[in-house]
């Protein structure tokens, strides 16, 4: 079926492109860059085929393929997408070409190897988003680590080796436990079965579920990263080259959230429900802690890195709410954060390439010198701070709404505490913009600062455009999410023995239109 | 299938080994390339014969009553293939390593061939005496190979250490065999199992158990399990690099497969589990080996010593499969064999790359990590291959290392020994750190000042083929496990 091979094509096209690049002479930098850009753009165009061909009225996995791979062990090449994977896939394919374009001048040596790493990484990320087989998922999940390790370790800053190894070991520590949990799930008295469908039909005793859930949860929590296993993130971000940071923040972290949604919660619903208070508490802790630490950073990249911890806390808070609004909001934050933080990292990279410092105190008052940059930075900061009409708003709003209406004694206090995160976000991010852009120009080294060139403007403008579209018409994404998320919340509720989930029918539909045009509410 | 065709692979190796010796003696000016070619062709031929026989019915050779000396079954054939592969790769990596130093003699290759023959006897042995004969055939060959790096004093040290420790282990083994024979009046695995199941109250059980324990200790030395591993790092460091790879992969494979035969054939699951003393013993050995092998590998300053300790730690993962088999898990022998197949490719590949780098003009001046700075830049193909082998040894997908680990750990889970799988996973996590250090040294450090002059390195065809074969094997066994998996699964009634 043409339909089903499209998904395989999207996933493996980057890998094929990487193979093609190996044939290029390594000195031919511009051709290598152009080809890599062309390949990733082609992947994006292919993935729009998925977007257009996707039927949002179905709850089944679409573009599904199920081919035996290692039959005796019940391993199959099982892939397929629902709305949740779809939006994340499109985010990935959208960010990759922009990143490559933005990285055009950031990467000066071993360009060919860099392009190959990026494309292999893209293949791994896409594969993890489509896999419906635990073995296949694990393969992609781990395969991503190696290119990212190289990207940080070869093209990174001064402490790149430390950061790369820390990134690798933290992630690996989580995922190895998950591997054992996968084995325990897949090995049954009657035989082996690694399919997600098969795993969902299992029902382990609660004690086993607890162990298995936490083994999965640890792997995903490290990736998200949740407080307190987030410590690899600032190191990795600060040392990674700009394109590495963009992909890391933009997509890799989302895989943690996705893992919770696709695997940990549905497979072990009872244990998951037990864990909700802990997850919620850690999420709130992450929101506030990330924001406070971001506030006191002197290094812009560290600030953005800690802001990621805070934003991803919103994602986890939305999940922990276990309501349709909360989960949709969590996914929306994922998308929005990918776009706005990607733009922030690129803007930091723009400054760094010119001045080779990321310390905010080295700048100040440069708005007059670089007006275009200033405009973009202010817009991105506002998107990141969650201003209405930009991408940050709908997601965080939905998360807080979902949390507020959730069951549980702590739900409301979490929503209130989480809301302080929104305020803090405005404080630290605008603080950064102010310190860099406004005030008197004190540092003479900035006198000759050049403004953004057309290539940089184009790549950041793409992201800001996306941010604007997401802010004005969030339904573009929420429409794809509504059905799968409703279905997901319902199934997890039913399977956890919490009884049927009966959302106040009106809430979601009432929120929808209001949310569709948040501008009206704001004006 | 008649006896003759069953023994044909042995004959091929025997003839090739003899030819190699003759050629060296009688040729006026021996052409070194030819010797390596002859050795490789012998291995290829034996390998093809073995592949052709896969799936044929099992034959027992030299049967004396209930005891079958040599079991030519699929498990033995598949394991022999792994040993032949180890021999082939070691042969291919030898010319580039040894020619310059002048220890590229005919007997070098002949010794590899004879050692592989010994391994094949080991992996097909059906009783303790045949096993012992195979073991000694192999060991004598490898003792000699170890000391052939005559330009380095460490080589003699290595050989002496290996020989003394090997003799020590042999003592344990023989003592154990004698006890077992004394208790059961037989050396056949089937007979031993029968006596264990039905001790018939004649008071021999303690002696039998003592014998089994001694034999297992002997195996512990041979597979370099902690705490019997002390010889391994020095020996690997001193031996010619391809031989170190051969020892780490081939010798280990043969020892593990024959251990598996012993465990499956002679140590049945008993009614009274408290008598199965070998299970806690083997589990303890596995845990110690994984933990200490990995921790010690972490502390090594040189890549070669790191690889030595890493091969110790891999023995620990393999012991997990042995424990699972001892608990009656049917998938464990296949898992062991699968792991060993992938492990042979990556270990010999890694030692091969190391050997080539040692011989490059102006290459790394020592075996320490720092000396390898910039290799990734100067020798992209070699470095890429090394990266692949390191990633595979760390057990990352999509490589043979990952699938092998997955298979071994799942056999442990199936046998109800999930905790051992967890220990294995913890060990893998530690191992990641030192495997990554190799990549760090190759790719992420500034070029070493030792590389002052331009390097020219023409890969010898042998080494090139060897590396390609190893890399291909590592990837193929990780991505398309199907065919080989079927072979290993079917092998021992899995």
Task: Describe the fold and architecture.
The complex is a heterodimer of chains A (523) and B (494). By secondary structure, chain A is mostly helical. Helix content of chain A is 74%, strand content 4%. In chain A, strands 1-2 form a two-stranded antiparallel ribbon. In chain A, a hairpin with a 4-residue loop joins strand 1 and strand 2. The termini of chain A are far apart. The model of chain A is unreliable at 504-523 (pLDDT under 50). Chain B has 494 residues and is mainly α. Chain B has helices at residues 3-26, 32-53, 74-98, 106-124, 128-146, 153-184, 189-197, 205-222, 231-238, 241-266, 278-298, 303-326, 332-359, 375-378, 380-393, 400-414, 418-444, 461-479, 482-491; strands at residues 59-64, 67-72. Chain B has a two-stranded antiparallel ribbon with strand order 1-2. The longest helix of chain B has 32 residues, at 153-184. The A-B interface holds A 69-73, 110, 135, 138-139, 142-143, 145-146, 149-150, 153-154, 160-161, 164-165, 168-169, 172-173, 176-177, 179-180, 183-184, 186-187, 192 and B 377, 391, 396-398, 402, 406-407, 409-410, 413-414, 418, 421-422, 425-426, 428-429, 432-433, 436, 439-440, 443-445, 481-482, 485-486, 489.
